[in-house]
């Protein structure tokens, strides 16, 4: 079932091999045997977000986790298949990353979906369950802002969600231990797609400050 978009992908593969790969051949050769990323980057699956592009990093620098609304389940031991939790575990305990960034963004579909009614989400049961991870933020938004304040709701939901996921990260014993020892740094980012601005959370004042 090949179409125009698939052809573009295939053309991109060819162009990468002929141009980008050749331009960075030494880097890819070095990466062929191992990786040593300095940062675990947790971002949304949104197609408009490109972690390497917005951070100016090369292959091998970021260990990337992407999921709907850049969520982090609180730490728990389980026999279930825990994709995000296992990736965090591997990044911290095996790869020994020095930083963890949780990057939220403007116009986040996951955050918007969390505000919808039970009826509206009835056809997306797994998404609905996943978005329960931001329920504390959602409850605060509904309490503080009315339906006549859609922009405030969106802004608070997206930024508050980043802070909530930083709290979830601190429930991981090995993350808490490393943060307190100063060997691991947690950061919360808020990326505005339409302007390219990135605001970084300041835990001391409880605000996101622009770093552009």
UniProtKB/TrEMBL annotation:
Cofactor: Zn(2+)
GO molecular function, one term: zinc ion binding
The keyword Zinc is annotated on this UniProt entry: yes
Gene3D superfamilies: Carbonic anhydrase (3.40.1050.10)
Cofactor binding, per record: Binds 1 zinc ion per subunit.
Keyword match Transferase: no
Gene Ontology biological-process entries: carbon utilization
Pfam families: Pro_CA
Enzyme Commission (EC) number: 4.2.1.1
Chemical reaction(s) catalysed: hydrogencarbonate + H(+) = CO2 + H2O
Compartments it resides in: Bacterial microcompartment
Record-level GO cellular component terms: carboxysome
InterPro entries: Beta_CA_cladeB, Carbonic_anhydrase, Carbonic_anhydrase_CS, Carbonic_anhydrase_sf
Keywords of this entry: Bacterial microcompartment, Lyase, Metal-binding, Zinc
Binding sites annotated in the UniProt record for Zn(2+): 44, 46, 105, 108
Function summary: Reversible hydration of carbon dioxide.
Protein family membership: Belongs to the beta-class carbonic anhydrase family.
Name of this chain's protein: Carbonic anhydrase
Species annotation: Alkalibacter rhizosphaerae
Organism lineage string: Bacteria, Bacillati, Bacillota, Clostridia, Eubacteriales
């Amino acid at each position: 079932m090949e179409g125009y978009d698939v052809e573009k992908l295939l053309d991109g593969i060819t162009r990468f091999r002929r141009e980008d790969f050749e331009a960075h051949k030494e880097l890819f050769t070095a990466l062929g045997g191992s990786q040593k990323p300095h940062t675990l980057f947790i971002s949304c699956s949104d197609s408009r977000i490109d972690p390497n592009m917005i951070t100016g990093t090369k292959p091998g620098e970021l260990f990337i986790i992407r999921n709907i609304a850049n969520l982090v389940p609180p730490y728990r031991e389980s026999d279930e298949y825990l994709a995000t939790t296992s990736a965090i575990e591997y990044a911290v305990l095996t790869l020994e990353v020095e930083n963890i960034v949780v990057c939220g963004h403007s116009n986040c579909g996951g955050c918007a979906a969390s505000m919808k009614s039970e009826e509206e989400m009835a056809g997306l049961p797994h998404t609905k369950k996943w978005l329960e991870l931001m329920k504390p933020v959602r409850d605060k938004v509904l309490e503080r802002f009315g339906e006549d304040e859609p922009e405030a709701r969106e802004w608070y939901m997206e930024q508050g969600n980043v802070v909530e996921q930083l709290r979830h990260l601190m429930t991981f014993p090995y993350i808490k231990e490393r943060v307190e020892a100063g060997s691991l740094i947690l950061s919360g980012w808020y990326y505005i797609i339409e302007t390219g601005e990135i605001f970084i959370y300041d835990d001391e004042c409880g605000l996101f400050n622009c770093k552009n």
